[in-house]
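Weekly structure sync, notes
Attendees: PL (lead), two postdocs, one rotation student
Agenda item 3: pending single-chain targets
PL asked that the sequence for the first pending target be pasted directly into the notes so everyone works from the same version. It is reproduced below exactly as submitted, 235 residues in total.
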Amino acid sequence: MRYENIRPARFIDRPNRFIAHVEVDGRPETVHVKNTGRCRELLVPGAEVYLTEPGTPGRKTRYDLIAVRKDNGILFNIDSQAPNRVVREWLDAQGFDLVQPEHVYGSSRIDFYMERDQERYLMEVKGCTLEVDGIGYFPDAPTERGVKHLRELIRAASEGWHAVAAFVIQMDGVTEVRPNVETHPEFGAVLQEAAQAGVRVLHIPCHVEPDELQILPSCTFWDRTGDEGPVSEEV
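Predicted structure, written out during the meeting:
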């Protein structure tokens, strides 16, 4: 997936979850942050950030903040809508007979429902923007919604569905995501329970540019021989 109208800027501060102050071409600007997570290790004063200008009429802010370069030089896409968009593009190329977003299952909307050869799949997608020493971690803030979705996937697996929890790694050079048990112990416990119950856990590495987020070409969900591909890695 690609963005239009990209502008570089410098981060100043973030007064709340939804907006940040940045410097664009030497002038201050209030921008929308497309991620309500903490991102504390990324959004630090002076950080190099990238903005997109959607041009939507009636907006309160001119720009969206979508990417930031960490002090280790790695560029992170922090757009919380990007994982679902890039996974949709990826799934459309994986040979499924049907890919349907926002599927109602139980008391939740699961991100994707897929069909292939009369087999049914449910996939929940999470974006990983937290990196420590080359390892990705999720979540960066407690997520009761994330726990709820994992429990739905456990139920689906028990009913014969192919249930999938997918972590889109929104940075280069990282191939593994671990549960951030220090921030949310319950999420880690339920993710382990899900893996043991047959929920497939995918770690999906990506390439990031200021105007782009792409899943690496080597990643395949289905290898066309009937066996599931190599992206899976159990917790």
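Discussion points:
- The domain at 6-75 is CATH 2.40.50.580 (OB fold (Dihydrolipoamide Acetyltransferase, E2P)).
- The chain is about 15% helix and 40% strand.
Action: rotation student to compare against the earlier draft before next sync.
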